[in-house]
Amino acid sequence: HENKKHNKMDEQKKVRKPRATKPQPQPVFERLSALNVNDKTEKRNSFTYLSWAFAWAEFKKQCPDANYEVIKDPVTHKPYMADEFGIMVQTRVTTQGETHEMWLPVMDNSNNAQKSAPYQITFKSGKTITVAPASMMDINKALMRCLVKNLAMFGLGIYIYAGDDLPDGYVPPK
Question: Residue 54: CB partners within 8 Å, gap ≥ 6?
Answer without folding.
Answer: 37, 40
